[in-house]
Known about the structure:
Blueprint (H helix, E strand, L loop, with lengths): L6 E2 L4 E6 L12 E6 L11 H12 L1 H19 L2 H5 L9 E12 L2 E9 L8 E6 L2 E6 L2 H4 L1 H8 L12 E4 L10 E6 L4 E8 L2 E13 L2 E6 L4 E11 L8 E10 L2 E6 L10
Parallel strand pairs: 3-4
Antiparallel strand pairs: 1-2, 2-3, 4-5, 5-6, 6-7, 8-9, 8-15, 9-10, 10-11, 11-12, 12-13, 13-14, 14-15
Amino acid sequence: MNRADFSWDEFAWTTRVPLPPDTWAATAGTLVPLYYAPEGREEHPPDDAEIASAAWTVDRLPALLAAARPALSAHAVHTLEPEDLATASDLTDAVRVSALHVHSVSRDGIPYVGIALSCPWDEEHGLGILMHGPRVVDAGGADTALLRRIAERDATDPRAGLDESLIGHWDSAPFDHGVMESSEVELRANGEGWSSLANLGGEYVTRLTWSCPEPGVLQLRDEDGRVTRHRYVVGPAVPPYGTEPVTSVTFEEAVQYGHQFAKSGYPTEVGSN
């Protein structure tokens, strides 16, 4: 990717990139617009560092989409009416990437990337998710992917009262052995998040807020105001039938019936292989 690939469209420097094959929410070979700095930047052409941020995004798009999928699924499950849920066998199979927004905002050398998606249950507003590497910053309507202020707020957040090692998406599946249900927890850097429980009866999503009132203690407050505390330890662990350790969190008091979760993610340094 180089400067000649971009053109000014009166709002942002834009190029079109192919979606990778065999990737969720992407139709192989489809070209989608990639906007660099859709808000808050002057019209001068992108420099080498900015082009590198755009190329970084394209190279890691399969991993970004994989990391975004659980949050978008939970968002849909929580916001759709019960009758709509009953007719959707897999909600996230129906969405498709419609645009990428690479913001001129970064934290720890990692750019913020917005992914806009079309979806059949909200054709007017679509879906949008803002990512910082494999970490979900926010999910909502398509404008969530576009708005610079969401990225700026996250980039400058001091994370007060939070254990940064807990921030991200956690999944009990690698440690579930001989059980008929699995749990997921997403703890976002703004102190919000969600948890889910999936079994043969369906998927149940709970929105929550979280904090760490003391070291090694996670406090959750669900949407009904119920508060629970969970002592935890974060460290490497090898899942059953696994061969390599993964970053895991182990809770003394279960979260959504799960005691041990693996952290989702991948190496995110700009310029890394």
